[in-house]
Each structure stands twice: as structure tokens, then as C-alpha cells.
Amino acid sequence: METTSDTSTGNTVITAAWLNEIQWLDGWDILQGKANLRYPCIWLADPAEHASPLMPNGPALLSDEERLRASRFHHATHGVRFQAAHTLLRMLLARATDAAEQDVRLGKGHHNKPVLLHPHDAALGFNLSYTENQIMIGLHDRLPIGADIEWLLRPLDFEMMLQACFSNREIEFINSAGEGVHQRFFTLWTRKEAALKLTGEGINEQLPAFEVLDGENRARKEIMGGRPPDEIYLYSFPIGTDFIGSLALPARISTLWCYHL
Questions:
Q1: Which of 257, 149, 239 is nearest to 194 (CA)?
Q2: Cα dist from 176 to 20, 68, 84, 234, whole Å
Q3: Do 86 and 63 form a contact (C-beta atoms < 8 A)?
Q4: How far, in Å, CA of 131 to CA of 104, rounded?
Q5: How many whole angstroms separate alpha carbon 126 and alpha carbon 130?
Q6: Segment 209-257, tens digit of pLDDT
Q7: Distance (Å) of CA 211 to CA 100, 152, 256
Q8: pTM (two decimals)
Q9: 3-class DSSP state of 86
Q10: Distance between CA 115 and CA 107 in Å, rounded?
């Protein structure tokens, strides 16, 4: 899809599309240093299945704040998921920067968005998302990135969220005739989350004011918040039958490498 720059009017051009041909590759060789990390990429892991192999030294890699947060989850499985997700993130950042895992240090940037403090690599983009029993991490070697994953069976009161989160055109799309309401809802939801995680803004009251329907959309930059790029490309993809993921980047990509553990 070709886009037309709209920067002279203070707009961000948002182009959204589906990636239906996803080929998942085994990521263990990369984590073990036996293969090269390729970009842009997403990583998928089930914390219940991979917490033990991911975390023989996991607690030692996490910060005091992260260990404290993990201990405060009401459900033990959520604490395990948190630890596994943040351990995997550090392992990937170590591989991406040729650093020792224990040397990776994270800080907080705009609106508390995680940033890499050491080793410092300003060009490396990363983002973490998790839901139910899945962790997803997006990485790019030279661009910022936003990532979001959702469980299609997540219990939600859609009707209460529609007006607060979507435009009239998006609501019409979600409620269109036929099956697949959950998928349409979470397609747009993950795209909006990914876009706002890209800019570092996070969820806010402006969600209905920018559209993420398939094709080309335009949004006022002040609506997006922060310093949004001139263009945002959104890519949605199925993850099995029960999950959906979306990525947001400030430039078009031709290949997405997809790894699972």
C-alpha cells in the first residue's frame, strides 16, 4: 500500500494491514548464540511451559523493582509470567547488543516506557506485551516499535468499551454482520495499543479520535500525543486460533521474522 505524506497539515498517516502468512521459527538457537538475530522480529513464549528453562538465573537478571512487582501479583501464575517475560526481554537485549545478560539495565523514558540504559544503543527498538498464557516481544535494530497481543477469549464488556475506544466507523466495522466480532474488536484494539506504545503515550481518552481500520487513515498529531512520527505502519497477525498480535513501526517493513520458544 502506498501512502501520501500529510506532514504539512500536521497529520500522521496510519497505514494498517494484515499479515496472514506467518512462519514461526524456533528461537532457542538464537538465545543460545548458535544463530544470528534478524530484524524486525517478534518473539512468542508460553510462560507456563518455558518459565523453567528461561529462568535458571532469571531472578538474578531482574532489578529489585521487578522482583518486588513479581512478588505482589495476586495470582502466582501472573508473577511467573511477569518474571519470564522480563527475563526473556533481557536475554534478547543481551543478544542484540552483544552484552552479558547480567549487564543489561533498563530505565524509564517518556510516560515510563522502558528504555535501554546499558549497554546504550539508541537505535534499538523493543516492546513487550503479554496476555493470558502468552508473552510477545517486538525488536527492531534501528527503529522504535510498539507491540501488543490479546487473547481472543478474554472476557470483556464490549458494549461499554466501544464508545470510549473507537470511532463511529470503527464501531460499525466491529458490529458488522457475521461472525468474528471478537477478532474485529481485538484487531483494532491491539493496533491502537501498539500505536500508542510506539509513541510512548499509552492508553488515553483520545482513542476514538484516531482510526486504525485496514488501509490508510489520518490523525492529527496532537491527538496522537507526544511526538508521533509522520507515518505509522500497523501490522496485525493471527497467533494460533486464540490470540492476535499487532506491531506498530514508523516505516514500512518487507519481512517480519517470527520466533517461538
A1: 149
A2: 21, 45, 38, 22
A3: no
A4: 24
A5: 14
A6: 999 999 999 999 888 776 789 999 999 999 999 999 999 999 999 999 9
A7: 41, 21, 24
A8: 0.91
A9: helix
A10: 5
